[in-house]
Specification:
The protein is of the alpha+beta class and 167 residues long. It has one domain (3-150): NADH Oxidase. The protein is built from six helices and four strands, in the order H-H-E-H-E-H-E-H-E-H. Helix 2 (23-34) packs antiparallel against helix 4 (92-109) and helix 3 (56-62) packs across helix 5. Bound molecules: flavin mononucleotide. Residues 11-12, 115-119, 139, 153 line the site of flavin mononucleotide.
Amino acid sequence: MEFSELIEKRYSVRGYKPDPVEDDKLQQVLEAARLAPTAANRQRLQLIVIRTEGREDELRRIYHEPWFTQPPLVIAACRYPMDPARETKDYTDVDVGIVVDHLILRATELGLGTCWIGAFDPAAAREILGLPDEVEPVVFTTLGYPDADPRTKARKPLSDLVRYERW
Ligand SMILES: Cc1cc2nc3c(=O)[nH]c(=O)nc-3n(C[C@H](O)[C@H](O)[C@H](O)COP(=O)(O)O)c2cc1C
């Protein structure tokens, strides 16, 4: 699939079939995440692959929407803290965003659906995923076969987003 088609095709999938995600597809999705660039190549993050089957009730404490536990997999992207002795600006959230975007675009290419989820309950995520104190959950995505139609992309026009040469 052409990249231009891929970015048109990706949408937030909020309905999933229960069909399993093939393990080789999961590995390809994770490999795309691994290859993503990060500041100073630090890769200061962890992805947690969570199987939803049988864990629906506790996972819905993390994010309440029923479609959150419809797909067979949910992935949590977590970050380690920055090292203030060696860095002046913390890019780790940016890094996590790039990593998850790689993951999501590869998933789209493989026919899988995803949805960025930032409005989750961090305390519930911490407890249920057993996160160490210094590790912070940043974003989740669902991962499974879509069972929801795409909506038309509502976006600001470029003229509202881009300036040339100076402010
Ligand atoms: C960082 C981030 C957090 C998001 N959090 C949520 C969320 O908690 N729940 C949700 O349903 N969608 C969430 N979304 C999806 C956005 O609402 C969606 O990407 C946007 O409306 C554009 O729609 P599209 O993804 O279908 O193109 C999030 C997206 C991003 C990038």
